[in-house]
Automatic annotation (TrEMBL):
One of its GO terms (molecular function) is DNA binding. One of its GO terms (biological process) is response to stress. It comes from the Bacteria. This is MarR family transcriptional regulator. It comes from Microbacterium mitrae.
Length: 179
């Protein structure tokens, strides 16, 4: 996951030192947290991109396929996909159009709501998402670069941050299998 030529000094630690030198002590910890998470995201994204490249998928397209594959019937209303992916509807529409063009999903009229679209996972879509999942699991998720305790702690900390930022409401009763 790390770069091929690691730096000899942690630039984020140096930035924190500079924040203190300039008298921004109250902001130093926050700046360090934000910058650290953003850099970690870049490193993780690079690993994910490398694992998905042989499958000719972006992470957005992979997420859509995986979400459809998790449903009982391999189908989901477009509106539900937009809600669950937490991205702008235009981005989801672009992702859907590309997956339709690639033959991985079909977009059809909803059987009970003529105004809505239903997304259907094709057999080739199921095959590519299963292959891509094997790659992600073995190349990224099983080797994330932290031990189990650190991974668990990081997920809990980030979940508390996300909940506090209004990203979701922690309601154990709302967990259910997708449609």
């Amino acid at each position: 996951m790390a770069g091929q030529n690691p730096l000899r000094v942690d630039p984020i630690a140096e930035a924190r030192r500079q924040w203190h030198v300039h008298g921004w002590d109250d902001a130093a910890a926050g700046m360090t947290a934000v910058t650290s998470v953003m850099r970690a995201q870049q490193l993780m994204q690079a690993s994910v991109d490398a694992a998905l490249k042989p499958h000719k998928l972006t992470f957005a397209r992979y997420e859509m396929l995986r979400m459809l594959a998790f449903t009982r019937a391999g189908r989901l209303p477009l509106a539900s996909a937009i809600d669950r992916l937490q991205v702008h509807p235009t981005s989801v529409t672009n992702t859907v159009e590309r997956l339709v063009k690639d033959g991985y999903i079909e977009r059809v009229k909803h059987p009970s709501d003529g105004r809505a679209a239903l997304l259907l996972l094709t057999e080739s879509g199921r095959a590519v998402v299963e292959d891509a999942t094997v790659s992600l699991n073995t190349e990224v998720f099983e080797r994330v670069g932290m031990n189990h305790a650190d991974t668990t702690a990081l997920v809990a900390i980030v979940a508390r941050f996300r909940e506090g930022a209004g990203d979701f409401v922690n309601d154990p009763e709302s967990t259910r299998e997708p449609d």
